[in-house]
Specification:
It is built from 9 helices and 7 strands, in the order βαββαβαβαβαααβαα. By secondary structure, it is an alpha/beta fold. It has a 7-stranded parallel sheet with strand order 3-2-1-4-5-6-7, sandwiched between helices. Strand 1, helix 1 and strand 2 form a beta-alpha-beta unit. Helix 1 crosses helix 7 and helix 2 packs parallel to helix 3. It starts with 11 loop residues before the first strand and ends with a helix. Bound molecules: NADP nicotinamide-adenine-dinucleotide phosphate. The site of NADP nicotinamide-adenine-dinucleotide phosphate has 31 residues, from helix 1 and helix 5.
Length: 277
């Protein structure tokens, strides 16, 4: 593997959700490697200040706006060599008892508009026969989180998109990385939306409360985001398409390995026990 800094391969990167958590850790790692970063937040005041960092305001719920923002940033950068679709958030609630607009919006932001930015990136990369697209999926695509149905859908969908694209970019000089973090200690848990539950029975509310407290404990016990940034750095040095599971050994290595040999029913039962369901 090359020990050259990433800037020898990637001149400019576009990173969504660069204000905090994993996106900030990726941005800091890229800046330390000499890469110019165009990083986004809904509030540009939350973004880092650095000579190689270019602040971009982006709200991902509006697809046409996101497309315009991406094109403007790309023009300013003279094209991107690396695009990291990282922005995302959780929404916690029972599927049946939550207003459907909550799920719809989460899918629009985290799946549909993220796919739209992925298309823009590939349209830039393919004619030049170079570039790496990284889409932040999650181990939740393999181990669904209870009461986060649209999150699970978005991440599974994104991993499915990444898999599809890996076939399409074969032999083109372009790569697609499906990056699947386990639990990391970020602002994610604090920003999870918890919409009003309509007409939920008491037993359902109690199960949800138990699932929430297991989820909180899991998130708080996760490693620091710098660990994910080092995993991504190694993947970018290789520059090849593939799936990267990143996190604690149990979540990122052992559980996926064991799940391959057990039945889906057993996997579900273990998840239910863990989440107190
Ligand atoms: N932390 C984990 O354990 C974990 C595990 C698996 C996967 N992931 C995934 O990793 C990614 C980063 O998560 P994180 O843990 O770093 O979360 P975080 O600390 O809450 O950061 C989320 C980032 O997404 C941006 N964002 C949120 N909603 C947005 C919207 N509507 N439009 C544009 N930007 C938006 C935020 O930007 P502003 O608020 O500044 O606008 C922020 O920079 C997400 O896709 C998440 O699903 C995280």
């Amino acid at each position: 593997m090359s020990s050259l800094p990433l800037s020898s391969r990637y001149r400019s990167a576009f990173v969504t959700g660069a204000s905090t958590g994993l996106g900030l850790a990726f941005t800091e790692m890229l800046l330390a490697e000499g890469v110019q970063v165009w990083g986004t937040s809904r509030d540009s005041g939350r973004l880092p200040v650095h000579e190689k960092f270019h602040a971009v305001t982006l709200e991902l719920s509006d697809g046409a706006l996101a497309e315009r923002v991406y094109r403007e940033a790309s023009q300013a950068a003279g094209g991107f060599d690396l695009v990291i679709n990282n922005a995302g958030f959780g929404a916690f609630g029972a599927f049946a008892h939550t207003d459907f607009s909550v799920w719809e919006e989460q899918l629009r932001i985290m799946l549909v508009n993220t796919a739209r930015l992925s298309q823009l990136a590939l349209r830039e990369f393919l004619p030049r026969r170079r570039g790496v697209l990284v889409n932040l999926s999650s181990l939740a695509g393999e181990f669904a989180l209870p009461y986060q149905p649209a999150y699970n859908m978005a991440k599974s969908g994104l991993s499915a998109l990444n898999e599809s694209l890996m076939y399409e970019v074969r032999d083109t000089g372009v790569s697609v990385i499906d990056f699947r973090p386990g639990d990391y200690r970020t602002d994610f848990e604090g920003s999870v939306r918890r919409p009003k539950q309509n007409g939920q029975a008491a037993a359902g509310a109690a199960a949800m409360a138990r699932a929430w407290s297991a989820f909180e404990k899991m998130m708080q016990g996760g490693p620091a985001p710098a660990h994910a940034a080092q995993n991504l750095r190694r993947a970018l040095q290789r520059g090849r398409s593939g799936t990267i599971r990143s996190g604690r050994f149990f979540q990122a290595v052992l559980a996926p390995f064991l799940a391959r040999f057990g039945s889906l029913a057993l996997k579900r039962r273990i998840q239910e026990m863990y989440f107190g369901l």
